[in-house]
Amino acid sequence: MSYRLETTRKFEKGFRKLASDLKRRVDKEVRLLETQPYSGKRLRGEFEGSFSLRLGDYRVIYWVDEFAKRIILLTVAHRRRVYE
Asked: Model pTM?
């Protein structure tokens, strides 16, 4: 079953700041999450329950809502700043 993608304002703000080639890559990889929501790395600690999708030096942090069959894209940023 396919999941529905939703974004937060923080994700949208981070996405707008990306270079156009990176935007295309993020869009492509995020679309794959609709059918493979658990393909990212499960996070621990403060971000427990979330997942991280690695795209070179950038990370997309997202949360899977199994009950509503949706994926909430929380943020996208360089790996040094994404966990702040």
From this structure: 0.92
The total number of structural domains in the chain stands at 1
Strands of the sheet containing 70-78, edge to edge, are 4-7, 70-78, 58-65, 50-55, 41-42
Give residue for tokens 């935007």: 23
Residue 70 pLDDT: 97
Is the Cβ–Cβ distance between 47 and 83 less than 8 Å?
yes
| pLDDT tens track for 35-65 | 999 999 999 999 999 999 999 999 999 999 9
Burial class (CB in 10 A: 0-12, 13-18, 19+), 22: middle
Domain, as residue range, for 25: 4-78
